[in-house]
Protein: ABC transporter
Organism: Novibacillus thermophilus
Amino acid sequence: MIRVRHISKRYRDTVAVDDVSLDVREGEVFGLLGPNGAGKTTTMEMVEGLRPPDTGEIVIDGLDVVRERQRVKKVIGIQLQATALFERLTVREMLRLYASFYGETQPTQDILSRFHLEEKAEDWVKHLSGGQKQRLAIGLAVIHDPKVLFLDEPTTGLDPQARRGLWDIIHTLQQSGKTIVLSTHYMEEAEALCDRIAIMDAGKVIALDTPSGLIRRLDSDSVVEFVVPDGLDVSRFQSLAGVKRVKKVDDGKGVQLLTDALQQTLKELIDLSEHGTFKINGLRTRTATLEDVFLHLTGKRLKD
Ligand SMILES: Nc1ncnc2c1ncn2[C@@H]1O[C@H](COP(=O)(O)OP(=O)(O)OP(=O)(O)O)[C@@H](O)[C@H]1O
């Protein structure tokens, strides 16, 4: 449905997007996951046709996004940021206004009921909760029944309940046949919603797979985390049995080991602490998650 080839974008000295290629299949929810500044928004805006790429090619549903912009607009829906909504219109007025931009649209009443906004139809937009505003923003984005929907960090700033409500809406949209591209910096959101995920860091796609495929790369791996005294040289942990990677986390206070031989690593770690006369605190072990995949690939944590 979407084909992106070798797109790049530079702002003065910053390379925001660096030679990104990817394909989004019809009917899938495709996630762009990465920390702030990774280039997710710039990538989305180029794919949406809002920003011209410096180089590269983007095709949506057979249409060239740069050369056939007007035709592409009918095929795609873009979720506005909540701040771009008109505060002093009612929900119904806002929907009617948007409907007037397009020739053929879905009935306002349908949108109100599908997005659970019926009771709010006559209320001013400014009086909606964060979750309701996000639902309205998505309702506006699908008013012309587009094939492809773009959601840029749709649940940022929402409480957990409102976030789950929005996840349900995104699932329903997928079931109705839409192709959805979303960006997020929430791991669990990417895992819960996305069929495939492109992990972005510093303008590049550094991994692209299903959530379970990404985790499977670290399948036999476990994570050992603990806290050591300030100033301890953590490189010594690299030589423990099974350890594949040593990372300092939590501003250097914690250490994280990725191991494929948990028992041996733990045994040697405890021996080392006894003989090395330093104390280990807060020792924890767990199996690898998408968060660890990110840490493993980038050396950075993907903070919520
Ligand atoms: N209009 C602009 N002018 C200059 N630099 C920009 C502009 N837009 C983005 N950048 C820079 O490009 C890089 C990528 O930004 P982008 O907003 O695409 O990242 P992001 O992954 O979407 O981050 P966020 O989650 O914060 O939105 C950043 O270093 C950012 O500072």
The chain is about 30% helix and 30% strand. The domain at 219-287 is CATH 3.30.70.330 (Alpha-Beta Plaits).
